[in-house]
Amino acid sequence: MFTFAGKLHINNFSCIMANVIKIKKGLDINLKGKASDVLLNGGKSESYAIVPDYYNGILPKVVAKVGEKVKAGSVLMIDKNRPEIKFVSPVSGEVTAVNRGEKRKVLSIVVKPDAQIEYEEFGKKNVASLKGEEVKEALLNAGMWPFIKQRPYDIIAAPLDTPRDIFVSAFYSAPLAPNFDFIVKGQEADFQTGLDALAKLTNGKVYVGVRSGSAVKGMKGVEIVEVEGPHPAANVGVQINHIKPINKGEVVWTVNPADVIVIGRLFNKGVADFSRMVVITGSETTERGYVKTISGCTIKSLVSGKVLGQEHIRIISGNVLTGTKVNMDDYLGAYDNQITVIPEGDETHEFLGFAMPRFNQFSASHSYFSWLCSNKEYVIDARIKGGRRAMIMSNEYDKVFPMDIYPEYLLKAIIAFDIDKMENLGIYEVAPEDFALCEFVDTSKIELQKIVRDGLNLLYKEMN
Amino acid sequence: MKALRNYLDKIKPNFEEGGKLAMFRSVFDGFETFLFVPNETSKTGVHIHDCIDSKRAMTVVIIALLPALLFGMYNVGYQHNLAIGADPGFLMTFIFGFLAVLPKIVVSYVVGLGIEFAVAQVKKEEIQEGFLVSGILIPMIVPVDTPLWMIAVATAFAVVFAKEVFGGTGYNIFNVALVTRAFLFFAYPAAMSGDQVFVRTADTFGIGAGQVVDGFSGATPLGQVAIAGKEMIGSFQAVDVLGNPISTWDAFLGLIPGSIGETSVLAILIGAIILLVTGIASWKTMVSVFVGGAFMSLIFNMIGSTVVMCVSPLDHLFLGGFAFGAVFMATDPVTSARTETGKYIYGFLVGAMAIIIRALNPGYPEGMMLAILLMNVFAPLIDYYVVEANISRRLKRVIK
Question: How far is CA A182 from CA A185, A276, A464, in A?
Answer without folding.
Answer: 5, 12, 41
